[in-house]
Amino acid sequence: MGEKNKTIVKSMEVLSLFYKNEQLSLQDMVELSGRPKTSIYRLVGSLEEMGFLQKNESGKYVLGLIFLQLGHLVAERLDIRQISLPVMRALRDDVGEAVNLIMQDGKEAIYIEKVDTMQPVRVYTQIGRRAPLYAGACPRILLAFLSRTEQDEYINHTEMKAIASGTLTDPAELRSVLDQSRVLGYSVSHSELEDHTSAVAVPIFNHAGEVAAGLSIAGPEGRFKQERLPQLVEKVKQAANQISQKLGWVYNK
């Protein structure tokens, strides 16, 4: 890849500050970015002019409405969401647990769709949430079906930090779990992204037989006891197969 356009890179750095901040002043952006005020002033002026940023009533900057428009376009064009949603709702009604749809985005997994459970005690996951590929059943099932070369590249260049009490942080253990998940066709996690939560995940394949996404059911750890896991695995596999077939995947025994 050629050298990145420096102005675009700087602009993206400014916009990325709003991932965790709803509104920011110019001084806030200067302090958070570490860039000179004059540079931030020019970038913000251009971003505001193009509609990427706008001022609110308090005079601080927020993301512009163009992101809402672009977000809708992206959502509408992600056909896998539309295809998966009815299947996800049926799975939720069948097992009584939350259902998540997740895709790989670089070295992370991103939750692109969810169906919440009707249970009073639940695991809340927000669309747009990101997680490292090594942590949690659904992100890890995506990693499990990458090639060994891609897995090694990821593991060798990723610092495996503990996110919750059960997060895998040992590369050798992760490789073993990935091998097992690929053979079994599913992954299970307990307290990896959040304590006292569990998940069961399987891959979704496209027409070319490539992994297009991951499908998981998630809930409080107490509802994912060992004796219930085989039933949950079978249910989520059936749902993922339905979605895969709608994407053109043909299973060859």
In words, what does this structure look like?
The chain is an alpha+beta fold and 253 residues long. The protein folds into 2 domains: 6-69, Winged helix-like DNA-binding domain superfamily/Winged helix DNA-binding domain (Arc Repressor Mutant, subunit A); 78-246, 2-Layer Sandwich (Beta-Lactamase), CATH 3.30.450.40. The protein is built from 9 helices and 8 strands. A 6-stranded antiparallel beta sheet has the order 5-4-3-8-7-6, sandwiched between helices. Strands 1-2 form a two-stranded antiparallel sheet.
Rounded to the nearest angstrom, the distance between the terminal CA atoms is 40 Å
Low-confidence stretches: none
By DSSP (H or I, 4+ residues per run), the number of helices equals: 9
CATH architectural type of the largest domain: 2-Layer Sandwich
Task: Summarize the SSE layout with pairings.
Blueprint: H1 6-16, H2 26-33, H3 37-49, E1 53-55, E2 61-63, H4 66-77, H5 79-95, E3 98-105, E4 108-115, E5 130-132, H6 137-144, H7 148-156, H8 171-184, E6 187-190, E7 197-205, E8 211-220, H9 229-246
The gist of it:
The chain contains nine helices and eight strands. It folds into two domains: 6-69, Arc Repressor Mutant, subunit A (Orthogonal Bundle), CATH 1.10.10.10; 78-246, GAF domain (Beta-Lactamase), CATH 3.30.450.40.
Descriptive labels:
Beta-Lactamase; 6-stranded antiparallel beta sheet; 253 residues; alpha+beta; 2 domains; Arc Repressor Mutant, subunit A
